[in-house]
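Dock nickel (II) ion; give full complex structure.
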Amino acid sequence: MKDKDKPVLAVKDLSVSFTMYDGGMRRREREMVHQLSLTVNAGEIVAVAGSSGSGKSLLAHAILGILPKNANMTGTLEFCGRRLDEKALKQLRGKEISFIPQSVKYLDPLMKVGRQVMGPCRRRERRSRQAKMKQAFARYQLEESVAKLYPYQLSGGMARRVLISGAVMNQAKLIVADEPTPGLQETLARETMKNFRELAEEGCGVLLITHDIDLALKMADRIAVFYEGDILETVPAEAFAGDGEALGHPYSRAFVKALPQNEFCAPESFGSRV
Ligand SMILES: Nc1ncnc2c1ncn2[C@@H]1O[C@H](COP(=O)(O)OP(=O)(O)OP(=O)(O)O)[C@@H](O)[C@H]1O
Ligand code: NI
């Protein structure tokens, strides 16, 4: 297999657990992500769709190497065939791997927005990165002067657009977008998704994390159905057509019933997840 044929992202047997101490200082290990595997190929948008609190952001944070200190991770991560260890992540993060975090709290409160969006760059790169930032800001309807503001001076929607601008101007090979659109106006949310598709067409792989199955269906090529820290199945978006008879798992079929066109029927009980 040539390097270029390798998936942009390959997650193998990823588990994430937390070490916790209860009242009596007894140590407990709680696993939140269970031996999960997933690939994202160049040129495709893969949605990870699942309910709130199921561990989707932990998956994103594991990929980016930004899990909290009390987290333990096992399994392997590869980026274009290269092992994603701490050293590789340091080189790739914010460049070939872009991240749109779920929370705008990821912006550094003490640094002007422009510097954060530009990232660390060499003097000779500054001009071209400035031009790219300008382009991205225009696309997301941000005034150029926003670059001179501090995060506390931004509204929630502006902060979100700043994060998106920073991620899409990198010419990344992989974008991990954790719930990128909530809080955005409809037109800007649509623009973001259009932007992801364009980037995918240029060869980028996009991992779109969302609890919105309807959005996942509209935007993604493949959908990984996420439930309680595990991916139940990864299927082409078309598998959700009709009654979802092409789907293997009752939880995925419950998702189909909950779609607006199916009048948001409450998911039926699907018993255990295996
Ligand atoms: N530092 C931590 N210590 C212990 N448990 C944690 C820690 N961080 C997250 N968790 C737990 O991990 C679980 C998964 O959280 P996560 O944020 O990944 O869910 P999610 O699927 O992204 O949810 P949402 O759709 O609401 O964003 C939560 O139950 C949370 O309490
Ligand atoms: Ni989340």
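Observed: Residues 268-274 have pLDDT under 50 and may be disordered.
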